[in-house]
């Protein structure tokens, strides 16, 4: 029954289905109004009473960029909890704060761009902190939980509309808008698509955001997989929002199209529905859409499709139904959210090693030292802290200030000029209504650009500065009152920042040897620091030559503090805005040299030294001489309290590593090698010895695993086993279930996570855990036939406490489909469906769809192997569909070349997509392995055979 009246149009009738309401509204919108909907900042349609709308509200681990909000642990820390129910509650709290903040500020959006489900394939990726895990099963489980919390629990209306980032195969910041990820079909289906697919299929996802990079030579914003895969996983309309500036990149940096009209039309037709470009200025995008319409590159139907998807999200959010189902005006910084932030921070802590040093007795005298010992760091996607807890704060609170001694370990220096004077930091008033370093301090991004403070000067005495080397020679300098030296738009150097931060960090420097002194380069501008009559500033000319005068080395203070204590806790790690963040990959797994020196000094002064790593990513550290090592991601507002409670034994640690910790940089693949199978990457395929394996984490309790049982029924393997707390404290255990093909015919994972559960057990108590593993979990992508296939044979079921700590194993024999030769005589061969390759890159067959292969090195040589090709009763001719210039050689079973085809550039002006078919004699019958060798700048799309 409809309740619409002549004065109430059907699109505002809550009793009508959303589809009919969208139909009605679409019919009322003009073409110009619909074009306006395509930009991120959609204008109001006042004649219909429709408010303005924008896509995009960052909410990765709390509401970001909109001022004070509850700050939860970084995403990789949430992944380390291995606890979906906890993460769902975090998502629920974040979505409530989004609604509560929107009630106060309509700039806060309900279309949230979270979570990030890119797999943490490579630990040097600058945005490692934003993902959950290197494993697709764990990533999808955590992401599904978070999106369910963000979506809310109303049966019809969504509290917020989550958009997954970043589609697809995106793990590098280096050249991120021009590099192409070469992803073979098995890796695409078994790895990269899985995290997205399982999360979308769970039903709480409103859309996705394509990544900046290209995949197989084609920009992600033109990905045919949006239609071929993503939109087939759900019946809901999914909204695809471009990443910021990416539509313009299609022309400006990627040079994929000659004109923005072509690029915009292609992205829209590929499935991009909302264009995030040129900030709040929608005029450029709308002009490009009109231009594309005028040139016949788009139709109004193309625009309608995109607008419908956006409206579908807006209707689900209840925008057209008054107040809707959610009233969260009071759901902001509640006691429940504060408690949840602490619980999440506690559950994220991973105990990597413990030789009995932990937990600490209540009367322990503790030295807490290190560059992060009194820090509560934020990252680019954090909100502003309402509450702040550093490790030092937490230890003071838990053990008492009289039992805790602190040494930050910074080098303290003065910078002498060539004139014999020293840099001087003038006194400054506090920020309006605040004091830098306090709980209420302003957002660092706001403090950084201040020009109301006096710039640095020089005088005879100078000011002692705290100097921290964060690695690779990147320095920060801090005044005695805690303010960081920063450069504002006017170029002057001021002590004005509460923390390093901002899209371009203005608080980092480098000392460069110059003669008998050093130049001080400001990394934000690339300019050197100079001394002028107006004050100290950065400029392109007349750099000052400084001679640092060291008042104290950080390791000296650390050694003194360590010698006074029973136990030393060295808190080391990273600043999330320095040497590894969005736009910047890390150069190494090593701990920065400054922090290595502090760790050595502490250990030399007191062997009872624990290392607490607080970082956005793994490090390669040597734990041999350390009795205890812990890791946590930056844990948000409750980080320090959580760490202290774990050190004290109030909470038994139960976080588990969501990614492999490698022992050395030499264990890592190239950052741009996305072939996890061929490159033997992640715990799934890595054949070396990790520093700490995927799933690793210790406890203050011990657990036994017994009675593994399995049965096959109703399309699944039912697995159960018993876990018992054999220790003397209540603790959580994360039971993990892996599978392994025991006798595979092709490379399969060494072991693969299929289920896990975090359980709390009192001493002596047991839990019977049961898991249902669909038979589809045992399948792999059969490249020969382009579909999933389960191979018949034995499979191991492995239950334990990590991917390497397996306690129980059982073998189950499954039926399936035996391998069949490739019917190449009948159907030919898609070049990209190779079994093995060397020196090959996958590239775009056309700008719209399809893949081709080419030598990875420009003009180089690459090889492709296709196993078990069935040539039937015999073929006598081979054809290749190729573009470019070079040769294709074919051989069988490792023998000599039987055919060589040479491709020439073709007609003048022929491009990389101008394919031609070449043929030559080629005799074969029966089943053989086919090897193709490509030389030169040739693209191979397809191979055919005929009698």
UniProtKB/TrEMBL annotation:
The keyword Hydrolase applies. Residues 733-803 form the Fibronectin type III-like domain. GO terms for biological process: arabinan catabolic process; xylan catabolic process. Keywords: Hydrolase, Signal. Pfam families: Fn3-like, Glyco_hydro_3, Glyco_hydro_3_C. The keyword Hydrolase applies. Residues 822-947 form the Cellulose binding type IV domain. GO terms for molecular function: alpha-L-arabinofuranosidase activity; beta-glucosidase activity; carbohydrate binding; xylan 1,4-beta-xylosidase activity. SUPFAM superfamilies: (Trans)glycosidases, Actin-crosslinking proteins, Beta-D-glucan exohydrolase, C-terminal domain, Galactose-binding domain-like. Transmembrane segments: none annotated. Belongs to the glycosyl hydrolase 3 family. Catalyzes the hydrolysis of a non-reducing terminal alpha-L-arabinopyranosidic linkage in ginsenoside Rb2 (alpha-L-arabinopyranosyl-(1->6)-alpha-D-glucopyranosyl) to release alpha-D-glucopyranosyl (Rd). It is not able to hydrolyze alpha-L-arabinofuranosyl-(1->6)-alpha-D-glucopyranosyl (Rc). This is Exo-alpha-(1->6)-L-arabinopyranosidase.
